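Me: I hope this is not a bother. Any chance you could explain this protein sequence and its structure tokens? It all follows right here:
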Amino acid sequence: MGRRTDARAVRRIVAVAALLPAAGLSVHADLWDVDASIQVGVTYSDNGELDADNESSATSYDIQPRIGIVRDGPKLDATVNYRVDAVYGDERRNGEDNEVFHYLDAVSNFDFIENRLGVSLNSSITQQITDPGERVGFSNATRIGNLDEVSTINLAPYFRFSPATFTSGEVTYSYGVVEYGQPSAIDSKQGVANLVVSSAPPSSPLNWTLNLTDTRVEYDTGRDVTLQRAGVDFGYAITPRMDAVLNVGIDENDFEGAPTTRGDTDGAFWLAGIRGTIGANTTYEARAGEQFFGDSYLLEFNRTARRLTTAISYTEEATSLGSRQLDYEYLLSFLDDIGGLDLPVNSDDTYVSKRLNVTLGYALAKSSWDFSVFLEDRDYLTTRDGDGREGDGSQGVRLGWNWTPGDRMNVGASMDWTESELRTDGREPRDFRATASVRRNLPDAGFLTLRLWHTQRRNSTTTDEYEENGASLGFGYEF
């Protein structure tokens, strides 16, 4: 990758690129839904520096304009949400008395030829924790520098075809860019070429899928990574609702001469098991086998009932931070949409992710509960300095509750706990957070918001431990 692009310019490019498909079809005004709002507020923290011994309070004031655009049409589907949080207070992280945070979530898909030829464009701007081992503030009132703005854009044209009866195929090429705001962070570009061909004749118990993938990641450190996989997935119907499955293939990986933590970084793989459905609301898949890094397992279970939804997954794959950022979704929601706590420290290393996700949701007439667990072990295939430290990981639990007693009131509460084991220095920070929020809709599109929170950090060294209590009050108007 060439020289670093200015982060502010990247934000503009990402935002404009996300809206380009929309501009081209703006004549169909009946297919668009646009909403906007603005909110002003004040936030208080009793430990603005998140200091273990010398706690000092901090107060900030913010203005948050927001715009949302949705289009649902025959050619273009698009959803764009953009928000700015302008924070004013004493001696911000940037040394000034103000700071501006940007948030963007844009997803669009354009069909040139329906169900045949098209392109998807996804882009985002998020605020993420730079280093989970450092002090972590979950509101913009704290004056902590452990935060970075991450911009991503991913463009993916695709072509679908049918080479024979009961056979379908798709060719895609996705190009993604990840840019960090801090000059010391490592940016990346990624290109992924993928060919999938599937066949499932209704008269035969056998079905198969051919999958060829070539992933190339370029880092601005000069290190390039190539991950290539070729595999065939076979399914054989044992019963009308269950298939025996076998996935076989080969991995070819190239780390451009980077130091590795193991001898085998590619080779043949196989995974065998079963998949199927239970009734109309439940799907499952379970496999076991071997990949180049050793024994390997896969699990997927999804059930949707009248009130309870369940999603369980366990996956093992070779990946990198650059790849993960392009499809990153927060597993834990913080006060100001700050994420990244479950990601590894920024680097250009490749690792094997072994990740378990469990999500439960329970809905009643006026309230709902959600419960989620994640556990990830990361086994590094490459090292920046060849020091031999091969792994780290993170884990977390969240419990959330939401209640809507009437048309004008919404109440929410959550508790979550996370723990990280850091490869860089062996620290094991543990964070607990409890939050409560209330929103009251006023006549004529106005609204009031109140949020309270308590955070607690425990670490392997007592000097890195702290507690914080905070509150924010806001008034907004929806246009």
